[in-house]
Sequence to fold (148 residues):
Amino acid sequence: MEPDELDVEAFTTAVEAFSRYFIRIPLLEVHSFTTLSVLDTLANADKPLRLTALARTEQVSQPGITQLVTRLEREDLVRRGPDPDDGRVVLVHITEAGRRIVRARHDDRARHLAPVLAALTAAERRALAEALPTIARLGEVGRAGMAG
Fold:
């Protein structure tokens, strides 16, 4: 392996190990993983999403996402509306209440991560800090690849 190449297997193993911990951080907001994922997807989308796009992104069936969105709508976490360009299409928008849940989840995770990060050496924290732009870019490239 060339010095500038990344061991994809090792990277995958490291990401999976961290993800197992990260997705299970205890949260003050008590919602299902799927609910939190849908709210996060909507909060981070640059526009409201079609039900079909949401079903694909969340990897659930069309009836499943419709049922979940109906429940979230009753809880005032999302709202549905027509697509201004095509009245036959339903778009799902996150509400401010939904955004508050996403922010609370972020804050919960940051609070739990702070002591974990503090347990790392100064050199490890610097390495993570230096990698942050690349990690963020990796997320952008990955999302773009999933959308296309």
User: Anything to note?
Assistant: The radius of gyration is 18 Å.
